[in-house]
From TrEMBL:
Coiled-coil segments on the chain, per record: none
Swiss-Prot/TrEMBL site (Transition state stabilizer) positions: 151
UniProt keywords, alphabetically: Cytoplasm, Pyridoxine biosynthesis, Transferase
Pathway where it operates: Cofactor biosynthesis; pyridoxine 5'-phosphate biosynthesis; pyridoxine 5'-phosphate from D-erythrose 4-phosphate: step 5/5
Similarity remark: Belongs to the PNP synthase family.
A biological process from GO: pyridoxine biosynthetic process
Molecular function per GO: pyridoxine 5'-phosphate synthase activity
Protein name in UniProt: Pyridoxine 5'-phosphate synthase
Catalysed reactions, semicolon-separated: 3-amino-2-oxopropyl phosphate + 1-deoxy-D-xylulose 5-phosphate = pyridoxine 5'-phosphate + phosphate + 2 H2O + H(+)
Residues given in the record as 1-deoxy-D-xylulose 5-phosphate binding sites: 45, 50, 100
Its job: Catalyzes the complicated ring closure reaction between the two acyclic compounds 1-deoxy-D-xylulose-5-phosphate (DXP) and 3-amino-2-oxopropyl phosphate (1-amino-acetone-3-phosphate or AAP) to form pyridoxine 5'-phosphate (PNP) and inorganic phosphate.
Keyword Cytoplasm applies: yes
Species assigned in the record: Chitinophaga jiangningensis
Length: 243
């Protein structure tokens, strides 16, 4: 069974639209767990347009499953993560003004930077995952930099699946995902995945990437919850993740 970590950013987007505390994202996180989520993911961005740094601090004592904080390792982000000590930090190479994440790390060019950053988190006992494009050439660099896991950036997969839903396993891009997953597993890196996964494309990914330990899903899951309700939606996603 692959774990489902629910990314609650978009609940915070809704809350921030009115300035009050509706929906209460602390309650949302606890409800997600009650409804079956195996983890809670947040991605505080520098402009705090959805998750705020204070939310992350407030969530820490309440999250009883796996707490995963994603983001670019700026000094502020690093201070926050080292203070909160989540179960996992996922490093993403997003510039401050990114609308959303749209690529993984170049583990060769940023090797020494990643080594320093990952070293600081590992010293604090935090598991480190790094966001990666499906490219076998980048896997070794993730390992050398000290990462425990990689998170495959699934945005391009989602697009490919949507455009070629008949037989995506035959397309080059999906082979890149399979090969990257295999290469990671061969050198002892565990595998996460995320970005634009949804009820259409998740099962196929899970079935063809047997190394998959965890997915983090937010945008589509929150949109589905409008129609199906949060509890049903979480169960629908979990059903896609059974072995
Ligand atoms: C790291 C990643 O894949 C992103 O999907 C991210 O966590 C979502 O961020 P936004 O909610 O800001 O689009
Ligand atoms: N790491 C990916 C994530 O947390 C959620 O991405 P999305 O489902 O909001 O695209």
């Amino acid at each position: 069974m692959t774990k489902l970590s629910v990314n609650i950013n978009k609940f915070a987007t809704l809350r921030n639209a009115r300035g009050g505390n509706v929906p209460d994202i602390l309650k949302v996180a606890q409800d997600c767990e009650r409804f079956g989520a195996d983890g809670i993911t947040v991605h505080p961005r520098p402009d705090e347009r959805h998750i705020r740094y204070q939310d992350v601090l407030d969530l820490k004592p309440l999250v009883t499953t796996e707490f995963n904080i994603e983001g670019y390792p700026s000094p502020d982000f690093m201070d926050l993560v080292l203070k909160v000590k989540p179960d996992q930090v996922t490093l993403v190479p997003d510039p401050p003004d990114a609308i959303t994440s749209n690529t993984g790390w170049d583990t060769i060019t940023y090797q020494s930077f990643l080594k320093d950053v990952i070293g600081a988190f590992k010293k604090a006992g935090i598991r480190v995952s790094i966001f990666l494009n499906p490219d076998v050439n980048l896997v070794e660099g993730a390992k050398t930099a000290g990462a425990d896991r990689i998170e495959l950036y699934t945005g391009p997969y989602a697009e490919e699946y949507f455009n070629a839903r008949t037989q995506p396993q035959n397309l080059q891009l999906f082979n890149d995902y399979k090969n990257t997953a295999r290469a990671a597993s061969e050198i002892g890196l565990d595998l996460n995945a995320g970005h634009d996964l949804n009820l259409d494309n998740l099962r196929f990914f899970k079935l063809h990437i047997p190394q998959l330990k965890e997915v983090s899903i937010g945008h589509a899951l929150v949109a589905d919850a409008i129609y199906f309700g949060l509890e049903n939606t979480i169960q629908l996603y979990k059903r896609q993740l059974v072995d």
